[in-house]
Amino acid sequence: MNTRLWPIMRKEFIHIVRDPRTLAVMFIIPVVQLILLGYAANTDIRHLAIAVFDADHTAQSRQLVEAYRASDYFAISAYVNDESEIARLLDGGQVRGGLIIPPGYADSLLKGRAAQVAFVIDGSDPSVAGTAFAASQSVGQAQGVKLIQQRLGVDFSSLGGIEVRPRVWYNPDLRSSNYMVPALIGLILQFLTGLFTALSIVREREQGTIEQLVVTPIRSWELIVGKIIPYVGIAFFDLGEILLIGVLWFGVPVRGSIPLLAAIALLFLLTTLGTGLFISSVTKSQQEAMLVSFLVLFPGIFLSGFFFPLEAMPAPLQAVSYVVPLRYMLIIIRGIILKGVGLPAFQEQVIALAILGPLILIGASLRFRKSLE
Amino acid sequence: MSPLSLSAEQLTKRFDHFTAVEGVSFSVQRGEIYGLLGPNGAGKTTTIRMLLGLLRPTAGQGTVLGYDIVRQPEEIRRRVGYVSQKFSLYPDLTVAENFNFYAGVYGVARRSISARRGDTLALVGLADQEPVRAASLPGGARQRLALACALAHQPDFLFLDEPTAGVDPISRRALWDLLYALAASGTSILVTTHYMDEAENCYRLAFIYQGRIVAEGTARDMKEQQMQGQVVELDCEPLDRALTILRQAHLFDEAALYGSTIHAIGPDAQAALVQLPGLLADQGVTLHSAEVIAPSLEDVFITRLRHVDQSVHSPA
User: What architecture is the A48-159 domain classified under in CATH?
Assistant: First the structure.
């Protein structure tokens, strides 16, 4: 092994263990982020608070209300006696929806006419509203079908017709944490390695030690590799940490090959370490490096498909997303962990990383060497 | 004659619109302490950076320990030690860890590092400070640790860039004692400074001003042979009025405060001395004494600078 790499790595390691703040960020932040995102970034809609205005007061109307309550999507938090009361509760945010059953509901049913009910939805949060919208319809329709069957005394399934039976693969319960936790691995790897590489190099510049290093026989690649390797080690530690918590705490199924994930993570790290190196070569202080990191990393998170699906973005943004390495990594991680698929399934993404990684790292190294002069 | 450790020939460095170093030539012999003296921004650090292969000279050439500064910078860096202006150490590392790191990157074999560390830290007087973090060392000790780190691989040539900036006088003296000991054992040393008194410690020195060497030689040589004019030391009062009179009277080329006296420099001191007492007395200045003295280095440089500035500002 190259004899100069070892002292650099050892020195970097001492820096890390001597700085409690760095240690905390490296080992505790991933856990905190995981818990926060695992729970908070939850788009599963369960027990949405609604108000019910039942103006009919019949057995039939109570049946309908019960059908909504039993659906699990909604929790009835208030019974009101006035439509305007629903508006007031919606305004105040106490409920996210309201079911209004007009007088004559049961009467219409008994006379064989279509009975109408209204369902008001607070649309200010589109993802909540979307789910509520669909759920309100499907609960009502199911109840309608049930009533018709009772009235006709037949079982529809004996009459032919089409029955759609959706089967959800990979994440049958559609749990957000299954989707978020794997992605968080990519996000945390990127954040830690990118930011800390930048900071550790800029610190040398701030202290003036870089001036001392350039007159030693150290070559710039040795400096880069020696400084990066400890952070790669930590990145892999964090990877294991997140996986473990994801599996044990959130019950995320790991269906694919972890060694494959690790191998591709290494490829991905080339891009993030390169980004960190680049940031270090254009900044003079740790503070500046921190700001630039956020400037570079944040848009990357949004353009990676971490929170929002890329397919829904306008074309120019989608085009930009092709240079965001996290974009590819997320597809790969979610593929390996949730789908249990192998290399053939995400060949393109791996190729993209294999191109971006060396490109970013070499570009950053050249820029870094220039910044030493 | 001792073999040459360093030679610079017509080294020149131009940046876009600015010439930092122009035509600098000098040489350092084995075991010699050579000083580059000059104000901040004169081109001292740029010269060192070229000699270490960090900057490519625009013109000129040089060798350090026989290796070409443009073609063989890595050979040079392996064999020289360098202490930068800020004696940059890692504050969160201990004295021993700082030393081990530099010894490691300089390729000192791992099994001999601890022996080297013992010897070197003892040499600079830090033997009992091994477990102390560099951050908590006082300035003088930090500088000696930086020196120890630069000596980890027993370099044949030592570059020191402003090693005594911000260091107390006792530590400065201790550093120079160390440098003499190193030189005596055969290490060649190039040191930059902007302290005149410190320059006198060097065996030979070059005075750099605006990127050029304006005087070169031993300190004594400079004082005896390169001094243009003579120096008169005036003990009189009030000093400020005397200074104004001297500057207006054109008896001397130059007059400046020098402690509680005035040093006046001119081509013919004897003639001036004849007129001086009367001139001062007329203006109410009491002259206690006035005598021609041996010039200090500062006197030499003031006259040299005046000469350079004149030739720059009024090209004849």
Answer: 3-Layer(aba) Sandwich (3.40)
Q: Cα angle vertex B35, ends B29, B37, to 5°? A: 150
Is the Cβ of A216 closer than 8 Å to some Cβ of chain B? yes
CB-based contact B77 A216, cutoff 8 Å = yes
Tell whether B255 and B128 lie within a shared domain.
no
Kindly report the number of other CB atoms within 10 A of residue A57's CB atom. Answer: 11
The CATH code of the domain that includes B233 is 3.30.70
Q: What does the alpha-carbon distance between residue A71 and residue A136 come to, in Å, rounded to a whole number?
A: 10
Residue B277 sits in which domain range? 228-313
Least confident of A199-213, A280-294, B160-174: B160-174
What does the pLDDT look like over A142-157, one tens digit per residue?
Answer: 888 888 888 888 777 7
Write the ipTM: 0.77
Interface touch A216/B105, C-beta < 8 Å: yes
Burial of B170 (C-beta count, 10 Å sphere; 0-12/13-18/19+): exposed
Residue type for B152, please?
A
- For the segment A25-54, the average pLDDT, to the nearest whole number, is 81
B106: contact with A, CB 8 A cutoff = yes
Asked if A7 lies within 8 A of B55 by C-beta distance, the reply is no
Q: Which of A331, A200, A184, A358 is nearest to A269 (CA)?
A: A358
CA atoms of A342 and A346, how far apart (whole Å) = 7
Range from A160-169, A199-208, B179-188 carrying the lowest mean pLDDT: A160-169
A232-246 per-position pLDDT tens digit: 898 899 899 889 988
Partner-chain contact B86 A211, CB within 8 Å? yes
Q: Does B82 touch chain A (CB under 8 A)?
A: yes
CB atoms within 10 A of CB A325: 25
Alpha-carbon span B41 to B194, nearest angstrom = 10
Residue B92 has its nearest CB partner, among A19, A217, A218, at A19
B226-255 in b/e burial notation, b at 16+ Cβ within 10 A?
bbebbbbbbebeeeeebbebbeebebbbbb
How many residues does the structure list for chain A? 373
Q: For residues A174-202, give the mean pLDDT.
A: 85
Calpha distance B55→B18 (Å, rounded) = 15
Among A215, A221, A227, A371, most B C-beta atoms within 10 A, so best to mutate, is: A215
Tell the residue number behind the tokens 């006082």, with chain if given.
B138
Q: Which residues of A touch B57 (CB under 8 A)?
A: none
